[in-house]
């Protein structure tokens, strides 16, 4: 493991100091022969955490995709399956391109939902697993077995989910129990049964809005408590928590906190979003992610979690410096806690997963989002001056 001295660095925008890395962890004192890196008074933060993305979907490195897909969720799902076939999309190559881009922006951990359906089977999971192995030591990748096309409408998908979990997927995914599956009991019974069988946590996409989303969320809460899975269930998107009826949402916040269910937001511009200050006040652990980037769903995104922190700030009207620090916390410590990352942070004994950012304050770092001067994973340099140390395929 790497041994370094980071000179003239400001951990979390504190006054400049020297930090020592010994055998990949922050240490109280330097060792003889350590490589010295002058950080030029820049801010050091823990590694950025991409807690909700889709590594297997990106079209990075491919010719421009002309998007003419219809407006509904089902339109996008059906179109994506067709385009994957037409382009012969290679999930290993695309996931590697995506992950390397994330590394260049200072990401050290990713949770990726990976599609499983009766057309492509386990090909996407196998591809992302190959990328995870190939990039080991540069970034940690957590895989969610994700039934993007639905389980109840497509018999055989649940069996493929079972197989993916048996071969090493880390979490059980789910999707809109009412709006897409049209069978909330069947879908959630299957998701929680798979989690129990394999001893895996759960992360469910919930796009459903207002009262429909509240119903599905209550069903998830009830099953979480009944099966003793407190602290092991996440709900991604959770658009229903952005509904205008704040009293109803506050009641759900209380139940989510009691069940220790986590919320993962992508801060989209086109949908209601959970109010992150209210989530924090309720004691609900919150993380964030870029969702899919440059794919058949939309042309946007670059896998920069500092940019995502800015978007969380914009969608939540976070203007004060301390509020922007909350947005950054969601994209670092919040995501790390949800992923269960051990030894995360900048204290002595923590794993040296960290990134240098530009600015006088943390808020300025979020707003300016300058290229990252240095990224470390376990004390190993993984990116310099905005470029990963390995090239994308």
Brief summary of the model shown:
With about 400 residues, the protein is α/β, with parallel strands linked by helices.
Total beta strand runs: 17
Q: What kind of sheet is the major sheet?
A: 9 strands, mixed
What's the tally of helices?
11
Mean pLDDT: 97
- CATH top level label of the largest domain: Alpha Beta
Classify the helix fraction into a percent range: 25-40%
Instruction: Please name the CATH topology of the largest domain.
Output: TIM Barrel
* Alpha-carbon Rg, integer: 21 Å
Query: Per CATH, which architecture of the largest domain?
Result: Alpha-Beta Barrel
Structural class estimated from helices and strands: alpha/beta
CATH-assigned homologous superfamily of the largest domain: Metal-dependent hydrolases
State the order of secondary-structure elements, H for helix, E for strand: EEEEEEHHEHEHEHEHEHEHEHHEHEEE
**Shape designation:** globular
Q: Could you give the distance between the termini? A: 26 Å
| Whole-number count of domains | 2
Q: Report the portion of residues in β strands.
A: 15-25%
Give start-end ranges of low-pLDDT stretches.
none
